[in-house]
């Protein structure tokens, strides 16, 4: 039998030969080809420039002198100067690194060195990593915030600038010379929600989020939803703070922020051919940004009056209520033109429903963050007011607020948090803020708690966007559904290696995004527009080229390389024409300056350094090598990348998908692996799930075995694996499967039923009929039946009838037939020569009908009889005619009669039974778990036996289905409390006023905002009068010294419009006379 199966393997391999087009095999999208040519052009140009600079001895000055139009104080990158070669090289270099990282992500996703692995969840392991990193490692790096800032040397940027601007609310109040007995001293490092603290917050949430994805820890799904709520809350909080403190609503600011959120994901979508909705966090944050921008932009001239901004937020709350909490069709009307019900990656119900679902889950979060930001100066002052009191009074006030929050928090923990996934989703928009505000309040409870942060988590939090996006492709794969493997068989070591590369590249992408943005989107509206227009034209040009090549069926790596070289040569020559001469002059000047200064840091001290300073000649003196070799070197670099891509595609695995037909050569190559049931992991699961503290049976011979496939070369793309009920439902939906054969086939049928959710199938029942047909309908749509046909003639009769019905009535045929037999023929009809001749004729007819069934569109699978345990045969007749040596002869008879070659696929029964023959209790049959291996072999073969599953269009749920006007109305009330009562904690802060006087948030408004508004140039006498007239509370006596102090020191503050101290004193009234 082994020789025949080997021949069958060769035939399978031949079917897959000849298809050597790498890009065709990978089903590469048009956008992927466009990105290959786009970045190929850039890499060619960069390599050519590097070669030109090196060959001419000008490499040392590649960074050159700063461009003429450099922005002073820009610590990130200088705006692009197209006449300045170092500036052009800088941009091309960073785009080259960016492109190489995208190339790495594409290889990891589509041509990894080893097969992607399925996720497995172990609760113990999940919490081990959480405790190790968040508690131990994070706690070990606990440091003062000012120390972290110094060590990290953080560079603010637009977006992070929003976070740093949050501190402007309170930093403007700091050390202004007024009565500090009324409130505790405020320092940058102990401010509420200071930058280090928010980075730490994002860091531990991001780590939890990543471990949730990596380990498939679905039991903490509800907690993960709260963390996404926190991220969107911070988007509202940060951007509101930025706009409020900077009053910057320019197009440049908008473009820079949209770039920050979408630059990486935009190119990832193009590189991998994925839809935008797959990375749903990015559209959510982008939408939230525009929501904040629109609210702050409309009527921005009155944003600093007390009630106008609150009225705008109230109107936004009403809009949110009408769009998401009322089932009135507004949401669908708003998105009908942009989104559809077409099934795409990341949106199994269509992009319209996916966006509705994702946006619904957190539709209040951004607004709540904006309200907290609006009331932030009051929150900060509230803490300091309490902390200026005696310890006893301070803690009574703080604990009163904490008690109120904890009561509500515990109600949430024992209520919505305990819901299953789907019910919880409907509650998250309305209750997800409870743990959020509780965490903020308790995390900032004391100045010391606010002054310290965990540096490790702080560093993780700085690159949350990049780590979230890149987890899909270079940490996990298959859009975060499987695990990337570099070291098979070493899961923990593999995790360490993959994680290291993932973190390093994510941090690099963070820096690249900011650096390239600084060059292409400087603080110049015209330069921003020009950069975006040119980039759009370039990308559109390459996409059109890819589209044309695809239409002409000319997609291949050599063609992509040629196009890249041609375009790269044109770009390289353009750069040379516009900037090379000026660059040579600049380099000559710099060289002369360095040579003239023998005492500076650039003194030539060695012969190798002297060569770098060799005398520069005019361009006419350049050698032929320096002129013509650079493009050749650029082409060689592209050749190396192309060969690397080709090698990975040829020798590597593939993205997760249906197995190719060539895997039929290997799917029977498996073995039973003994496992230790008493290891630490198993003991932990037994204790947690079953209350067991010890095992009585561990390693074999206690039947502790699992079926496993032998390792196959990656290039076979044969990623065999366990097919569970969910996967089988997808494959077999609305199909019909018929098993025809003897008791061996029946046992395989029962094992298949158990794998598909019928756990009682094949249970021992001495009262039921043994030799009878069995019918089952699975999933409500899939009939799977067994026909009792122990003899070859019985199998032939049934198969003829199936073929007759299929020939006469189109469509009446099963989708798959599984045949098996030989044991009964050997036992009852194989004693004489006449019996053998009759049996041979029957087999010839059976082979014909099998081939006919395949011609009619039904694949036929043959089950080779399993191994016989001769010593366990329980009748004399069986011991005389059914020994294993007799059965092996019968297997050869079936093979030589063409039964195996007439099959679409063969399940090799002895493969999964020979090593467990001693467990055959009657000599013929085995325990059910043994047949599960044969069922899994069959299920894996379904990938190529059956065409893609019949997926009937499932209408997505109705838009508006999740609306809850009652809870939405409750949120309107809560928002009103936050706005009218001026409390970022949504009214909880008032609990402190029951025990401590002078800390009601609405009474702190004037004092909290006075310094900020004066600093922003808003407290001219007219503005002070307007604010006091609009407010139901006149400017408090606590605020008066603040205004007076700013009036006295108006020259120190930007935009101060106070005309004189006397005018301020007059506005404050006689009781607040200026000293």
From TrEMBL:
<dbReference type="Pfam" id="PF07779">
    <property type="entry name" value="Cas1_AcylT"/>
</dbReference>
<feature type="transmembrane region" description="Helical">
    <location>
        <begin position="88"/>
        <end position="106"/>
    </location>
</feature>
<keyword id="KW-0325">Glycoprotein</keyword>
<keyword id="KW-1133">Transmembrane helix</keyword>
<feature type="transmembrane region" description="Helical">
    <location>
        <begin position="526"/>
        <end position="549"/>
    </location>
</feature>
<dbReference type="InterPro" id="IPR012419">
    <property type="entry name" value="Cas1_AcylTrans_dom"/>
</dbReference>
<dbReference type="GO" id="GO:0005794">
    <property type="term" value="C:Golgi apparatus"/>
</dbReference>
<feature type="transmembrane region" description="Helical">
    <location>
        <begin position="555"/>
        <end position="575"/>
    </location>
</feature>
<feature type="transmembrane region" description="Helical">
    <location>
        <begin position="311"/>
        <end position="331"/>
    </location>
</feature>
<feature type="transmembrane region" description="Helical">
    <location>
        <begin position="126"/>
        <end position="143"/>
    </location>
</feature>
<feature type="transmembrane region" description="Helical">
    <location>
        <begin position="226"/>
        <end position="244"/>
    </location>
</feature>
<keyword id="KW-0472">Membrane</keyword>
<feature type="transmembrane region" description="Helical">
    <location>
        <begin position="364"/>
        <end position="383"/>
    </location>
</feature>
<keyword id="KW-0808">Transferase</keyword>
<comment type="similarity">
    <text>Belongs to the PC-esterase family. CASD1 subfamily.</text>
</comment>
<dbReference type="InterPro" id="IPR036514">
    <property type="entry name" value="SGNH_hydro_sf"/>
</dbReference>
<feature type="region of interest" description="Disordered">
    <location>
        <begin position="594"/>
        <end position="618"/>
    </location>
</feature>
<keyword id="KW-0812">Transmembrane</keyword>
<feature type="transmembrane region" description="Helical">
    <location>
        <begin position="277"/>
        <end position="299"/>
    </location>
</feature>
<dbReference type="GO" id="GO:0016740">
    <property type="term" value="F:transferase activity"/>
</dbReference>
<feature type="transmembrane region" description="Helical">
    <location>
        <begin position="395"/>
        <end position="413"/>
    </location>
</feature>
<feature type="domain" description="Cas1p 10 TM acyl transferase">
    <location>
        <begin position="189"/>
        <end position="531"/>
    </location>
</feature>
<feature type="transmembrane region" description="Helical">
    <location>
        <begin position="966"/>
        <end position="991"/>
    </location>
</feature>
<dbReference type="GO" id="GO:0016020">
    <property type="term" value="C:membrane"/>
</dbReference>
<dbReference type="GO" id="GO:0005975">
    <property type="term" value="P:carbohydrate metabolic process"/>
</dbReference>
<feature type="transmembrane region" description="Helical">
    <location>
        <begin position="33"/>
        <end position="55"/>
    </location>
</feature>
<protein>
    <recommendedName>
        <fullName>Cas1p 10 TM acyl transferase domain-containing protein</fullName>
    </recommendedName>
</protein>
